């Protein structure tokens, strides 16, 4: 049975995309662990907290495309390390606002610098500005299309 060349091409794109994502995640995580004793997962969560006004666990889950339970566990780990704190939500007593502590803000600044440097090395150095722009727009288009499909499973 022969494979359809079109199908094989899509499989190769999938394979390259997923494998590169894994390689990139691992490289970023290794460097963050070595230089800041910070995991990439924790940095990702901290980036969302820092950039989201009145950040709730739900906001973290939505931004990182993970479950609310997973986001809550991530916040628990950050809180246990002293990098964030939960505060009462004045607009909704059933939820909390998550904020970075002073220690968390300092760690985010250090980790963010390492993160940015590694992204420069892994993405900007091997790609031209045009290619990087195309990649960014293409991935954004795919994410939006997927989000629409998720919102309307009937398609």
TrEMBL record:
Residue ranges constituting the HTH marR-type domain according to the UniProt record: 10-144
Gene3D superfamilies for the chain: Winged helix-like DNA-binding domain superfamily/Winged helix DNA-binding domain (1.10.10.10)
SUPFAM superfamilies reported in the protein's UniProt record: Winged helix' DNA-binding domain (SSF46785)
SMART domains found in the cross-reference section: HTH_MARR
Pfam hit, one: MarR
Record InterPro entries: HTH_MarR-typ, MarR/SlyA-like, WH-like_DNA-bd_sf, WH_DNA-bd_sf
PANTHER family for this protein: TRANSCRIPTIONAL REGULATOR, MARR FAMILY, TRANSCRIPTIONAL REGULATORY PROTEIN-RELATED
Protein name, per record: MarR family transcriptional regulator
Native organism: Jatrophihabitans cynanchi
């Amino acid at each position: 049975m022969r494979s359809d060349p079109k199908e094989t091409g899509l499989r190769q794109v999938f394979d390259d995309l997923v494998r590169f994502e894994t390689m990139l995640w691992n490289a970023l995580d290794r460097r963050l662990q070595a230089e800041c004793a910070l995991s990439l997962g924790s940095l990702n969560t901290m980036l969302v907290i820092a950039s989201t006004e009145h950040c709730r666990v739900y906001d973290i889950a939505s931004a990182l495309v993970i479950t609310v339970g997973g986001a809550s566990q991530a916040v628990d780990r950050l809180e246990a390390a002293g990098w964030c704190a939960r505060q009462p939500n004045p607009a909704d007593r059933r939820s909390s606002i998550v904020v970075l502590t002073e220690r968390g803000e300092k760690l985010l600044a250090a980790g963010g610098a390492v993160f940015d440097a590694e992204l420069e090395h892994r993405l900007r150095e091997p790609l031209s500005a045009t290619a990087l722009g195309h990649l960014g727009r293409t991935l954004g288009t795919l994410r939006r299309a997927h989000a629409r499909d998720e919102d309307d499973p009937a398609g």
